[in-house]
Design a protein that fits this description.
Number of strands: 2
Strand content: under 5%
Strand order of the largest sheet: 1-2
Largest sheet: 2 strands, antiparallel
Length: 320
């Protein structure tokens, strides 16, 4: 089982950075102690959110994700697995930390996490309360033996899985901070009815029997942005939150268009890809310029669980 904090909680809570404290002596009789080193914050995601070299074209995504899972699982088996960053003891890692450390291509860790969550875990009959250590050890073993191939990618991300992965590589490749800056500095790039179009594409996916695959593909986006928003906050980076949210919305648009490229009409999918393309450097056409916007609904990035949480905390005053 992989635990994830609510998006609302992640954005609202601060993070405490732990540091190792050196021992003190009386100077004359005690040996000089080496300077204390800061302990890496459990929310930092260096490999996931920093820029890196592009994926090796000679290594297919399935092999990369299989190797990532194997390495992450071994890290969890050696160090122990914790259900959350704030609950780790004695060097334990969360699955997100392990995925980040094992990742060699920006965005891959978020794809792997989405796949781990979507794939059914073996039924071990263990109880997370009664058999805590054994339960999480089984999860670590499940990740270490998680194998990704074209068939499983098709089963979990749909028939256009390669296009979905390519989109993730596009927005993650130059690093989260650079992407957000590019969104901030870009001209208006999103079609005004993008949210409605994405809803239409989701309906097409459902009609094609691909609802769970759509949800898994879309989940990659908030997994990535939640990790990187929190990581940047911990690292003290000055990130424009409004541009980050717009960037996340554009990424969700592009993933939706990539997912439905074989089942959705081009007049719906192509406009959704334009926002990300313009952010990445494509010039809007003169015909597009007057129709594009930077407006968005912040609730587009919320999961159904977070929407329910908001509605529970702020019930309508209009009554039933």
């Amino acid at each position: 089982m992989i635990f994830r904090r609510s998006r609302l909680v992640s954005l609202a809570c601060g993070v405490v950075v732990l540091a190792a404290v050196g021992a003190c002596g009386d100077g004359d009789s005690a040996d000089e102690q080496p300077p204390a080193e800061a302990v890496a914050d459990p929310y930092l995601r260096g490999n996931t959110c920093a820029p890196d070299s592009p994926a090796d074209e000679n290594v297919d995504p399935a092999s990369r994700l299989t190797e990532l899972s194997r390495t992450a699982g071994e890290l969890l088996l050696v160090n122990g697995i914790a259900p959350g960053p704030d609950l780790a003891v004695d060097g334990q890692l969360t699955s997100s930390q392990a995925a980040d450390r094992a990742s060699t291509v920006p965005g891959d860790a978020s794809i792997a996490e989405a796949l781990w969550i979507a794939a059914p875990s073996p039924d071990t009959g263990l109880d997370p309360i009664r058999d805590t250590a054994e339960y999480y050890a089984a999860d670590a073993l499940h990740i270490s033996t998680f194998e990704v191939n074209e068939q499983s990618l098709n089963r979990m991300l749909g028939p256009s899985w390669s296009s979905v992965i390519e989109v993730v590589e596009e927005f993650a490749g130059d690093g989260y901070a650079h992407y957000v800056e590019s969104v901030r500095d870009a001209p208006p790039m999103r079609v005004s009815d993008a949210a409605a179009v994405r809803a239409q594409l989701r309906a097409a996916a459902v009609d094609a029997g691909l609802e769970s695959q759509w949800e898994t593909a879309q989940s990659i986006v908030p997994i990535y942005f939640q990790s990187c928003t929190t990581s940047s906050d911990v690292a003290g980076q000055d990130i424009d939150l409004s541009s980050s949210i717009l960037g996340e919305v554009l990424a969700a648009d592009a993933v939706g268009a990539a997912f439905t490229e074989t089942i959705g009409p081009s007049e719906l999918t192509e406009p959704l890809t334009r926002g990300l393309q313009i952010v990445l450097g494509a010039e809007p056409t003169s015909a597009e310029t007057s129709e594009l916007t930077k407006e968005y609904d912040p609730n587009e990035i919320l999961s159904p669980e977070d929407v329910e949480l908001m509605e529970a905390e702020e019930p309508s005053l209009d009554g039933p």
